[in-house]
Amino acid sequence: MVVGTLDGAALDQADVDRVFGALADATRRDIVVRVLTQAQSVSSLARRYDMSFAAVQKHVAVLERAALVHKQRQGREQMVSGDVETVRAAARLLAEYEAIWRGRVDRIADLLTESGDDERDQG
What we know:
alpha+beta, two-stranded antiparallel sheet
């Protein structure tokens, strides 16, 4: 099932599951925020959290599989940078869900208005 687009390509359900699954963890959300503002090495990220270097590497790997971050070797360091296009794709999908919800709310409001008009016409 195709649910949106990412850089013009279809964003399938597995992609959506990976993105939102990755964002379901507070540490991973924090990493995304940090690397969207500025690329950081995995080791500098690891110093920010009360967990092992290996645990931070695993979080980064989950984010990388979801295309929320990219790693690039710079000398001896692995630099992590955020992928704003994937974040935008997730935001677009959430906006689509919001539009569906708002459409339902608008229809309910219309029904209530029609119901109120009918009662006044009978009174």
